[in-house]
């Protein structure tokens, strides 16, 4: 299991390096990614920056998991926190780009940008009140501009929380699995595993004690799901940018 996970992580890193070698993900106007970005228009955080950051965080977290697995004395909680850090951005990429038809991709990308735009505006609002860290105050007009862009990209849609987004991501992955295993067991099992990982690993990240009540033997299986999800996310991104 550990050897397979290391191979998965290595493949994910390789795909991300290919993405990094590209000057711009929208340089090919006929690619699926360019078409999505053009249809979305201006947003507080544009699609390439948003999913580019998600890819970096997913890849870096997976890389750190790989290094930690090779070290003696690594704490399980460290792997759990890294697993959550890899799973959530991977989920955002898969949710945005995973659907089979472009109309669903566009709608999901819109929701991802709404979620990030609202987070960005909350940070700007907090910074506007800074009295000592004046260099971190947003420039005049920046908050209003971000709000206008958010209104334009949202078109009345509501933001989606992390847990709901991961559930939708699990459905997207499940659709791919069902095409290979029509009985649907794979989809149900994947969705339940992702849900369990989110809750337990979020508990670790918040410093709660209850996740320690779970058998640590499950950690290897969890990381296998996290690694496979990260690889799928980077593969999807690479294909949408290059297609």
From the structure above, extract its key features.
globular, 243 residues, mainly alpha, 0% strand
Short description:
With 243 residues, this protein is mostly helical. Helix content is 73%, strand content 0%.
Which regions contain 5 or more consecutive residues with pLDDT less than 50?
A: none
- Report the C-alpha radius of gyration, rounded: 19 Å
Q: Bin the strand percentage.
A: under 5%
- Supply the helix-strand structural class: mainly alpha
Oligomeric state of shown chains: single chain
**Terminal residue distance:** 32 Å
State the domain count.
Answer: 1
Main sheet specs: none
The proportion of residues forming helix, as a percent range, comes to: over 70%
Instruction: Give me the count of strands.
Output: 0
Round the mean pLDDT to the nearest integer and report it: 87
Q: What is the string of SSEs from the N terminus onward?
A: HHHHHHHHH
- Tell the overall outline: globular
Can you count the helices?
A: 9
């Amino acid at each position: 299991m550990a050897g397979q996970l290391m191979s998965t992580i290595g493949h994910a890193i390789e795909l991300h390096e290919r993405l990094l070698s590209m000057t711009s993900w929208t340089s090919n106007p006929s690619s699926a990614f360019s078409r999505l970005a053009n249809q979305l228009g201006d947003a507080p955080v544009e699609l390439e920056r948003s999913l580019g950051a998600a890819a970096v965080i997913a890849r870096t977290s997976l890389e750190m998991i790989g290094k930690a697995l090779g070290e003696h004395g690594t704490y399980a909680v460290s792997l759990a926190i890294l697993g959550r850090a890899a799973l959530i951005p991977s989920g955002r990429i898969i949710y945005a780009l995973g659907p089979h038809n472009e109309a669903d991709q566009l709608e999901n990308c819109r929701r991802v940008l709404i979620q990030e735009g609202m987070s960005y505006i909350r940070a700007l609002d907090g910074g506007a009140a800074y009295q000592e860290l004046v260099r971190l105050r947003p420039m005049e007009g920046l908050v209003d501009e971000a709000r206008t862009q958010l209104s334009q990209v949202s078109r009345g849609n509501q933001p989606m929380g992390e847990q709901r987004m991961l559930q939708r991501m699990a459905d997207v992955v499940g659709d791919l699995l069902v095409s290979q295993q029509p009985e649907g067991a794979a989809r149900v099992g994947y969705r339940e595993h992702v849900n369990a990982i989110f809750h337990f690993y979020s508990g670790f990240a918040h410093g709660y004690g209850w996740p320690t009540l779970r058998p640590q033997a499950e950690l290897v299986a969890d990381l296998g799901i996290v690694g496979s999800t990260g690889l799928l996310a980077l593969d999807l991104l690479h294909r949408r940018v290059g297609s």
